[in-house]
Amino acid sequence: MTSSATEDSISSIKAEALERLSAATDQDSLERWRVEFMGRKGRLTGILRNLGSLAPEERREAGAAANRLKGELEAAFEAQSALNKRAASSAPTDAIDVTLPGRKTRPGRLHPSTQMIREMLAAFNEMGFQTVEGNEVELERYNFDMLNIPADHPARDMQDTIWINRERVGADGGILMRTQTSPMQPRTMEQQDPPVRIVSPGKCFRIEATDATHEWQFHQVEGLAVDEGLSFADLKGTLYEFARRIFGADRKVRFRCDFFPFVEPGVDMSIDWNGRWVEILGAGMVHPQVLRNVGYDPEKYTGFAFGVGPERVAMLKYGIEDIRHFFNNDLRFLSQF
Ligand code: DAH
Fold this sequence. Notes:
Layout: H1 3-23, H2 27-38, H3 43-50, H4 56-90, H5 112-126, E1 130-131, E2 137-139, H6 140-143, E3 163-169, E4 173-177, H7 184-191, E5 196-205, E6 217-227, H8 232-247, E7 253-258, E8 263-273, E9 276-286, H9 288-293, E10 302-308, H10 310-318, H11 331-334
Parallel strand pairs: 1-5
Antiparallel strand pairs: 2-4, 3-4, 5-6, 6-10, 7-8, 8-9, 9-10
Helix pairs in contact: 1-2, 1-4, 2-4, 5-8, 5-10
3,4-dihydroxyphenylalanine binds next to strand 9 and strand 10.
C-alpha cells in the first residue's frame, strides 16, 4: 500500500462517513455507524493498522491525515449524538392520534348500595336527621364498651369481630373493623349536648360464613335521636314514615320485641314481602346506661336509635335474591341499577 493510496481512502472514507452519519438519526443507527467506521475492526482503524507497512516518510504524512480524520469523525459523532437526543426528548411520546375514529364512552354509575344509602339518607334528612360519617376502623371502646356491651357480654358472640389489635390498651380497648355503625351514637353524643338527631351510613365487617342473606362486609345506616320527652311513639312514627317513603304507603310494617344491649326496650322491624315478614332493622329506646356513659342525664333526656341494612332494603325493593351480588363486582348485576 502506498501513501497516496492511503490518502485516497482517507478522503473517500471521510466523505462516506459524514454522509452516512447525517442519516443516522436514531441511537441504533448511530451505534452501527460507530462500529463500522470507528470500532475496533472498523474502517478507520483498518487504515491506522496498515500504516506500519508504509515507508517512514509516507507513514508520517498518512498517519497525521488518519489522526485528523479520527478527530473529525469523533467530533461529528458527538454532534450527531447530541442532535438525536434533543430530537428524541422533544418528540411527543403520548400524542393523541386525531385520526382514530371516535368511540362511545361508557359512563359509570353509583353502586346499588350507595344509591340505596342515599335514598335512605334523603328520607331521614327530610325528617330533620343530619348525616355524620364515622371510621371503618374503630376502637373497642366505641364499638362495644360505650354501647353497654362489656368484654364478657354474650352479645359479642353474635358479631364475630375482625380485629386489628386484640389487646386492650387503656379505656380505648383494642382496635377492630367496626361490626356496626352504632359506635357513631356515643361518638356523636360525646361531641354535643342534646338535642341530637343524626343518621350515619357506612360499611361494617364481621367474620361470617356467607350465604344468600349474610356477607362479611355490608352497610348500615345508623340513626339516633335524643331530646327531652322523646318516646316510643316518636320511634314508631319515624320508622313508619321511613318505610312509607322507601316502599310506598301501602306496605305493611311489623314491630317485634328484640334484644340489643344499648336499647331498652329493643325491637326489630319487618316489612311484608308477598305475605312473608322480612326484617330490615333493629331499633329501640336508648339505654339509660348509654346516656350515662356519654355524660347525659337519663332523668332529663330520652332517645331512640335504629340501625338499618341498606342491602336488605335494596333486596326487598328490587327483588335481589342474594346479598353476595352486591360485592361480586359483576357488571351484569351492577349495570341493572
Ligand atoms: N347495630 C345493630 C346490629 O348491627 C343494629 C341496631 C339495633 C342498631 C338496634 C340500633 C339499634 O341503633 O337501636 O345488629
